[in-house]
């Protein structure tokens, strides 16, 4: 039985996509929609606030615009024992004999931007099952496995089949998948397998780009998504918590989830995430009702399908 007073903040990972590019559903104010991307000084303040609050794991990627460089600048002077940085390689156009050198150059570029001698986790960005059949991929991946600048290898995936293939491949210590109240289907399908294989599951999209928060983000015009968010908000209200708290605690308390990425672009979100992680467990009735929120494999819960105006 879950300890209702257990501090789960060690499972939080600061997702840095919003540090380097416009990311997530727009908030609105009197002047109309505005970007969620912070300035460089704001990005530094965010990272340092999170570090001081005890959030010590940061997930970034070359594909996140200025994120790696901003994270590196922010961590200068505070980086030390206990700080964990995850970044990525991949999204390459050529799978041939040059792949090993391509990935090494990517790693070197990331380390330079991050001002670090190593990364704790290097992930292949958007890994697919077909890569496991490529001799070029396997050779290049083994080269990274032997690189002292890389402490562990992982993969980010979309969907059930690629997640399952990544877990079964034996190539990754950590597999990152999508999970939220409306789309729990991937972890539901592969969680037990990951545990049996000794592979840690980390999850992203817990807030579904802000849709599953109390901030009132403007949703895409998708009736299924809108209805799902309304049901989630009602369940949260019925159990005396906010939607943000329900979305995050449900992930933190999940038996098959090891780490939970939280996209952050404001200091208030740091404080909120830490408070939720240190706060009380969800009531049994709330946990028992979570399955009713699932939209299964409905594309409305997949941001890749959204057409935003």
The SS-based structural class is alpha/beta
Low-confidence stretches: 30-34
CATH class category name: Alpha Beta
Number of domains: 1
Shape: globular
Oligomer: single chain
CATH fold-level label: TIM Barrel
Residue share in β-strands:
5-15%
Report the mean per-residue pLDDT as an integer: 92
H/E series: EHEEHEHEHEHEHEHEHHEHH
Rounded to an integer in angstroms, the radius of gyration calculated over CA atoms is: 19 Å
Tally of extended strands?
10
Number of helices: 11
CATH superfamily: NADP-dependent oxidoreductase domain
Do you know the CATH architecture?
A: Alpha-Beta Barrel
C-alpha end-to-end distance:
45 Å
Into which percent range does the helicity of residues fall?
25-40%
Strand order of the largest sheet: 1-4-5-6-7-8-9-10
Describe the sheet with the most strands.
8 strands, parallel, barrel
In brief:
With 309 residues, this protein is of the alpha/beta class. Helix content is 39%, strand content 14%.
Protein model, in words:
- The radius of gyration is 19 Å and the shape is globular.
- It has one domain: TIM Barrel.
- With 309 residues, it is an alpha/beta fold.
- It has helices at residues 17-20, 40-53, 67-75, 99-114, 135-145, 160-169, 185-197, 223-238, 243-252, 267-278, 284-289; strands spanning 12-15, 27-29, 32-34, 57-59, 84-90, 121-125, 153-156, 174-178, 200-204, 259-263.
- The relative contact order is 0.15.
- It has an 8-stranded parallel barrel with strand order 1-4-5-6-7-8-9-10, surrounded by 5 helices. Strands 2-3 form a two-stranded antiparallel ribbon.
- α2 (40-53) packs across α3 (67-75), α2 (40-53) packs parallel to α10 and α4 (99-114) runs parallel beside α5.
- The model is unreliable at 30-34 (pLDDT under 50).
